[in-house]
Write a structure and sequence with these properties.
Homotetramer. With 501 residues, the protein is α/β, with parallel strands linked by helices. It contains 15 helices and 23 strands. Strand 3 and strand 4 form a beta hairpin. The chain binds nicotinamide-adenine-dinucleotide (NAD).
C-alpha cells in the first residue's frame, strides 16, 4: 500500500503538511506516516473570530438550502469512501471493514441531516389568554466546537458537523492528536462539497485545528463558542465539562463506557457467542460501546464460556488492511501497558485469565497486537468497574436476574447494555424503569454498533450527552418561546391585575 497515494487522492498535499511538527504514526507497525502542522493555542482566537463571522452569514441561509450542502457532502463521502476508510485503518488501526463502516455512518448521518433540514419543527402551544397564541421556535446558536477521540476519528465529527451545519452553525473541529490526517481529509472532502455548493457557504464555515489538550482548552474556555461537543475519556470530560459550565456554555459530553451483556437461561447461545465476539473483540476492544462485562446465568455458564474461549482462540489478528483479519493492533504501547496492568490486577483478585498476551511481536516490533482476553471473575472488583480501553472481557456468573441487573448498573459509567433472552418477562424487566440505567439498552443484539437513527450517548460518567439521530439536533439550536397577542386587550398571565390609569 502506498500511503502517499491515498493522501494525494484525498487531497492532502505537501502544502498541507509543510512545517509539520506533530508526528503521525500508524499503529499497524509504529512507523511515521507524516508530520502535520499544529496550531498554537494563542491562535485559537483568530479561528473563533472567523467562525463568528461565518455564523452571521450562514444563519441567514434557509435551512433546506443548508441541507443541500450536507447532501453534497454525502455525495463526496460516497466517492471517497474507500480511500477515507483506508486512512481510518491506517491511522486508528481498525480493520478495513470497520473503516468502511465508519465512513458509511458518515454518509448515513448526512442523509438524516438532509431530511432534518426541512424538519426543524417547533410546537404551537395553547395560550391561557384570549386572542393570544404561543409557539416554540428553533434558531441557529453559533460556532460549535467539536473535540473527538482517536477511536472514531471521522464518524464523530460527522454526527456533530452534519447536524450543526443544517441547524445553521459553523464548526471548529479539534480531532485527536493521534488521528489528524483523517481530520484533514474530511475537511478536504467538505471543501469539495462547498465548492459545488457555491457562494452561500461563507469562508470559515468549517475549520480544523490540530493540537493537544491545550488547544482543546482554548476552544472550551471561549465564550464565543456556545456549544462544545467533546468525545473522549471521562478524565477529559471532568476537565472540559466544568470549564464549559463555568461560562454557562452548553456541553455535549460523550465519555467512557463500561458496557455489559446479560445472558439468561433462555438465550439463543449461538447468537450470543457471535454478538459477544463482535462486541468485545471488534476494533480490538477500543470502542466506547465495546462489551467489557458479561453476566452469565449459572445454568448456561459452563456451556457458553468454553465456546467463547474456543472462539477467541480462532480470532485472526494482524495487519488490519489485510482481508480476513478481524482484529488489528492497539493504538500504542501505553494502551498495551494499561491492558497488562488491568489483567495483573484482575489476577490478584483470584480471577482466571484466558489470553491477553502480546502477539506478532516479531513481525511488528513497534505494533502492539494482543490476543483478546477473557477473565473469569469471582465478584465485581474495582478493576471491572474501570474502563480499560482494550479487548478484556470480564465474565461472571449470576443466578437471579435482579442481581445481574444490579451488578450491571453498579459501575460509574452508563453507556450501553444488552440482554440475550427469549423470555419476554426478562427482556421487558431489563428495559423497564427498574432495568438497565444506560443510554443504550438492547435485546438480543450486542452493545456496540449503533445505527445513526437513534440518539447516541449515555448516563452517569458517560457524560449525559446525546448525538446523532432522534431529537439530538435540539442541542445545536437556541430555543425561543414566543407569545403573540393579536387582540386589543393586554391580559396578564395567571389573571394578575396591574391596571394603570
Ligand atoms: P482522550 O480523552 O485522551 O482524548 C479525547 C480528545 O480530548 C482528544 O482530542 C484530546 O486532545 C482532547 N483533550 C484531552 N484533554 C483535553 C482537555 N483538557 N481539554 C480539551 N480537550 C482535551 O480519549 P481517547 O483516548 O482519544 O479516546 C478513548 C476514550 O474516548 C475512551 O474513554 C472512550 O470510551 C471514549 N469515547 C467515547 C465515545 C462516546 O460516544 N461516548 C466515543 C468514542 C470514544
Amino acid at each position: 500500500m502506498n500511503y502517499a497515494e491515498i493522501l494525494t487522492r484525498l487531497g492532502i498535499g505537501e502544502a498541507d503538511l509543510a512545517g509539520g511538527s506533530l508526528a503521525v504514526r500508524t499503529p499497524i507497525d509504529g512507523s511515521e506516516i507524516a508530520k502535520v502542522p499544529e496550531l498554537a493555542p494563542e491562535k485559537m482566537a483568530d479561528v473563533i473570530a472567523t467562525s463568528k463571522a461565518a455564523f452571521k452569514k450562514w444563519r441567514m441561509v434557509p435551512a433546506p438550502r443548508r441541507g443541500e450542502l450536507v447532501r453534497l457532502l454525502g455525495e463526496e463521502l460516497r466517492a471517497a469512501k474507500d480511500d477515507l476508510g483506508q486512512l481510518v485503518t491506517l491511522e486508528a488501526g481498525k480493520i478495513f471493514q470497520e473503516g468502511l463502516g465508519e465512513v458509511q455512518e458518515m454518509i448515513d448521518i448526512c442523509d438524516f441531516a438532509v431530511g432534518l433540514s426541512r424538519q426543524l419543527y417547533g410546537l404551537t402551544i395553547a395560550s391561557e389568554r384570549p386572542g393570544h397564541r404561543m409557539q416554540e421556535t428553533w434558531h441557529p446558536i453559533g460556532p460549535v466546537g467539536i473535540i473527538s477521540a482517536f477511536n472514531f476519528p471521522v464518524a464523530v465529527w460527522s454526527w456533530n458537523a452534519a447536524l450543526a451545519l443544517v441547524c445553521g452553525n459553523p464548526v471548529i473541529w479539534k480531532p485527536s492528536e493521534k488521528t489528524p490526517l483523517t481530520a484533514l481529509a474530511c475537511q478536504k472532502i467538505l471543501e469539495k462539497a462547498i465548492a459545488r455548493f457555491g457562494d452561500d457557504a461563507p469562508a470559515g464555515l468549517s475549520q480544523v485545528v490540530i493540537g493537544g489538550a491545550a488547544l482543546g482548552e482554548a476552544l472550551v474556555t471561549s465564550e464565543d463558542v456556545p456549544v462544545i461537543s467533546a468525545t473522549g475519556s471521562t478524565r477529559m470530560g471532568r476537565i472540559v465539562g466544568p470549564k464549559v459550565a463555568e461560562r454557562f456554555g452548553r456541553s455535549i459530553l460523550e465519555l467512557g463506557g463500561n458496557n455489559a451483556m446479560i445472558v439468561s437461561p433462555t438465550a439463543d447461545l449461538e447468537m450470543a457467542v457471535r454478538a459477544i465476539v463482535f462486541s468485545a473483540v471488534g476494533t480490538a476492544g477500543q470502542r466506547c460501546t465495546t462489551l467489557r462485562r458479561l453476566f452469565v446465568h449459572d445454568s448456561v455458564y459452563d456451556q457458553l464460556i468454553p465456546r467463547l474461549v474456543k472462539a477467541y482462540a480462532g480470532v485472526p489478528a494482524g495487519n488490519p488492511l489485510e482481508q480476513g483479519v478481524l482484529m488489528g493492533p492497539l493504538i500504542d504501547s501505553d494502551s498495551f501497558d494499561r491492558m497488562q496492568g488491568s489483567l495483573a490486577a484482575a489476577k490478584e483478585t483470584g480471577a482466571t485469565v484466558h489470553g491477553g498476551a502480546r502477539q506478532l511481536e516479531d513481525k511488528f516490533p513497534n505494533g502492539y497486537y494482543v490476543t483478546p482476553a477473557i477473565v473469569e471473575m469471582k465478584s465485581q472488583e474495582q478493576v471491572m468497574k474501570d474502563e480499560t480501553f482494550a479487548p478484556i472481557l470480564y465474565v461472571m456468573r449470576y443466578s437471579d436476574l435482579d442481581d445481574a441487573i444490579d451488578m450491571q448498573n453498579d459501575v460509574p459509567q452508563g453507556l450501553s447494555s444488552c440482554i440475550f433472552s427469549t423470555d419476554v418477562r426478562e427482556t421487558e424487566a431489563f428495559l423497564s424503569d427498574a432495568g438497565s440505567d444506560c443510554g443504550i439498552a438492547n435485546v438480543n443484539i450486542g452493545p456496540s454498533g449503533a445505527e445513526i437513527g437513534g440518539a447516541f450517548g449515555g448516563e452517569k460518567e458517560t457524560g449525559g450527552g446525546r448525538e446523532s439521530g432522534s431529537d439530538a439536533w435540539k442541542a445545536y439550536m437556541r430555543r425561543a418561546t414566543n407569545t403573540i397577542n393579536y387582540s386589543r386587550e393586554l391580559p396578564l398571565a395567571q389573571g394578575i391585575k396591574f391596571d394603570i390609569d
